[in-house]
Amino acid sequence: MAAYDYDVIVAGGGMSGLITAAAICHYSKQKARVLVVDRNPHSEPGKKTINGWTCGDAVSKRSVDYLADNIGIKYGSPELEHPVEGVLVYSPDHQTKVLFEGEGFILNRKILPKRQIEDAKKLGVEFAFNVACDRLYSEDGFVRGVTGRNLADGSQFKKTARMVVDAAGNATKLRPNIPIQSKIELDIDRDDLESTGRYIYDFEVSEDDPTWFDSRYALIHLDQFIAAGGYAWTFPKGKNKVNIGLGVQKKALDLRNAKFGKKDGLQDLIDQYVKMNRAIKNPVQSADEQDRGNTKGSWQVSVRRHNDCLVANGYAMVGDAAWMARPIDAGGIGPSIYASVMLGKAVAQALEANDTSEESLWQYNLDYMKHHGYQMASFEVLRRYLQTLSNDQISYGMKYFLSEEDISSIVNREHPRFSRLRLLNPAMMMRIAKEPKLASGLKHTADVSEELITHNMNYPEKPSGFEPWKKKLTTMLTEAFAKF
What we know:
By secondary structure, this protein is an alpha+beta fold. The chain folds into 3 domains: 6-52 and 109-188 and 304-371, 3-Layer(bba) Sandwich (FAD/NAD(P)-binding domain); 56-108 and 189-303, FAD/NAD(P)-binding domain; 376-482, no CATH class. 35% of the residues lie in helices and 24% in strands. It contains 13 helices and 19 strands. The strands form 3 sheets. Strands 1, 2, 8, 9, 10, 11, 18 and 19 form an 8-stranded mixed beta sheet that branches. Strand 18 (311-312) and strand 19 form a beta hairpin. Helix 6 runs antiparallel to helix 7 and helix 8 packs antiparallel against helix 12 (436-457).
């Protein structure tokens, strides 16, 4: 066997990269040599863009507990900055709210990576900071390392390993240029990306209106005028502190601007959203040292299902590099935690077996799909459908067509069945008659969802079954999207 510098190189020192590195060491009983390569300096670990650690910052308690239960890493204050009782989604008219998620936290994303590095170092993880990973290095049909640049002095960087984990985010240069044959989808459709931005503000309470700000709940506002093709959010970081922002899809924003004769961009809309918030008065960017350099920023996030195949010979990807943010709400922290732990276990097993082939790493595909990813294609369909609706239609549907059963499904990260639409009582028939296309569309998305979940739960056990499975998935999605 060739001599390699490391067993595993993790490209990217953000949320998913640091958890994956720690998980590999945990499951290998600290036998694996793991190197994390990050473009940020040691003083600014986990920084996502030049604007800071830009993120919505919300994470579910269940995913934090999953991390603790599986690899023994327990987060607390100050990285868990503020607890919330749940996530509430409000209709455009603010008349209907739906509990979208249970208990959780609003993170301090600037502090969290420092804590994660401490955890990883205790498990034996090594680090190379200030290094940009530009390309994968391959030998005999296997990825065997990375090449790049030392950003401090411009010198060349090359390290070899038995395998590489790509955790370099949406802008990774590794996945699109993978130098070996693989089943991995290389590029994302522009319509499956949303531009997002946010502020971290201290503010005075203008009026007590829990539909606009509630320190107990993270709020999501659906509004096709202020957040075309996406949504706006007001996530509390305290009684007088907030992470507030929104995301838009470019195509939807262009249509909105044309319809209303506007020329609004992302930042214009964010500022309008802050101004229209009835609960917030005199907002100022946080002066807290823990927020310095992180109070205003923008980034891109994927809103499609995760990559249908996550592994190749000597290679695996996780987090934003694998498009793991949920299509319905662009939440990426929870999926990254689950996937990182699962990948760490799969990599440790592959190293123990001395086999980092696609087939040996395939268990990661199975574990993620059957535990968490099986719903993502159906959420992608629902997201595409919701983007076609007006504010009036969204408000009407949330008020009359969502049942308690549907809300329970949403809290459990399952696709709502819109069971009320299947009732034949006179009152419901009259409501359906007022919005027949809306009722038909919601029922269609629910029916397609069941089919997609069944298909995804039958994800192939081995790589040899992937192509027919993928072909059927593509056909199902194409047919579903065509009806919108």
